[in-house]
Amino acid sequence: MAYEKELQVAQLAVARAAILTKAVFHEKAKGTVSKDDKSPVTIGDFGAQALIIAAIKHNFPSDEVVGEEEASSLREQKDLSSTIWNLVKDVKLDDPESDALLGGPIRSEAEMLDIIDMGNSAGGNKGRIWALDPIDGTKGFLRGGQYAVCLALIVDGDVKVGVLGCPNLPIDDREPLTEDMGAAASDAEGKGVLFSAVLGQGATSQPLTRRGASTDSTGVRPIHVSKISDVSEAVMCESVEPGHSSKGDNALIAEKLGITRKPVQMDSQAKYGSVARGAGDLYLRLPVRKDYIEKIWDHAAGDLIVREAGGQVTDVAGNRLNFGLGRTLTENKGVIAAPANVHAQVLKAVQEVLNSK
Ligand SMILES: Nc1ncnc2c1ncn2[C@@H]1O[C@H](COP(=O)(O)OS(=O)(=O)O)[C@@H](OP(=O)(O)O)[C@H]1O
Ligand SMILES: [Mg+2]
Ligand SMILES: [Mg+2]
Ligand SMILES: [Mg+2]
């Protein structure tokens, strides 16, 4: 099957990085650095980016990576850099054979910094480019809420493989979303799911750490968006951060569609995963600031996983997200993810609300 090795490497690399992010959370190694845009970046973000790029470069040396983080601030903060190195150098998958597939350990702290900086591809619509968000929803991660380790392979501008590791979402696809999803999750028993998709091959979920509840020996299950026919019964997913998507517009759209249930707020591409498995029905991300341009690593994996699970993903104009234009989604504003049968109806409501402003 096409992209079999890429899928396997991506799944294992994301699972290994999630071992690190969970350790960072539980060891409270929570030093943060503030980036130019004032968003936080943690030991977990840097460490996960290093581990995932190392795995990609070991297996596919000439592939490029568009990664969210870069190491310049670490090169100036030796203490932070060595804290990260001390965690990164010891992270291993349980299964030695799988671990070996990702290449040997990173050899030194200096090499780790260089690897983090290999996420500097300009992106584009030619060749093989991985989009990597080592921790999506960093604020959710710090809060103990939802976050996701996100990796997608884009070939000539099209997303071919998408993997999302969500350590704080339930393993069970049928577990309903709760209102406090964004606040009080934990990676205890029954939590931690890995969503995957390959273009044209459908979408799946499985336990993130190969143990726990499963329906067969590997625990891989096909996933599908919900079979909702009456959109007024929809469960809508939205951001936690008020600055990331418009809660006011979402409320007006919900009213127009006759939706009475309160939206479920959670950070990260866990929203795409939740829609793909039918735990949520809709994901709406309407712009707050006109000048904000979405990043490809915040959407590439989720976009493919939802589409392969029977959903449609567009911007507010009804166009597909274009991942071939560089590091950002320069041609798209906002995101609407919904089961294919109700997407047009939701899009219409979105446009009516936006046009009436
Ligand atoms: N102004 C603005 N508008 C839209 N999006 C923004 C904005 N600022 C930041 N970001 C990006 O939002 C990513 C996390 O957003 P989410 O909506 O998934 O989660 S959250 O509930 O808002 O925390 C977050 O990803 P991470 O940095 O990986 O956490 C950012 O890339
Ligand atoms: Mg960030
Ligand atoms: Mg992100
Ligand atoms: Mg991030």
From TrEMBL:
Key word Magnesium present: yes
Superkingdom per UniProt: Eukaryota
Cofactor entry: Mg(2+)
Name used for this protein in its record: 3'(2'),5'-bisphosphate nucleotidase
Function, as annotated: Converts adenosine 3'-phosphate 5'-phosphosulfate (PAPS) to adenosine 5'-phosphosulfate (APS) and 3'(2')-phosphoadenosine 5'-phosphate (PAP) to AMP.
Catalysed reactions, as listed in the record: 3'-phosphoadenylyl sulfate + H2O = adenosine 5'-phosphosulfate + phosphate; adenosine 3',5'-bisphosphate + H2O = AMP + phosphate; adenosine 2',5'-bisphosphate + H2O = AMP + phosphate
Annotated residues for binding of Mg(2+): E68, D133, I135, D136, D298
GO biological process terms, semicolon-separated: inositol phosphate metabolic process; phosphatidylinositol phosphate biosynthetic process; sulfate assimilation; tRNA decay
Pfam families in UniProt: Inositol_P (PF00459)
Any GO MF annotation of the entry: metal ion binding
E.C. numbers: 3.1.3.7
Organism: Capronia coronata CBS 617.96
Keywords: Hydrolase, Magnesium, Metal-binding
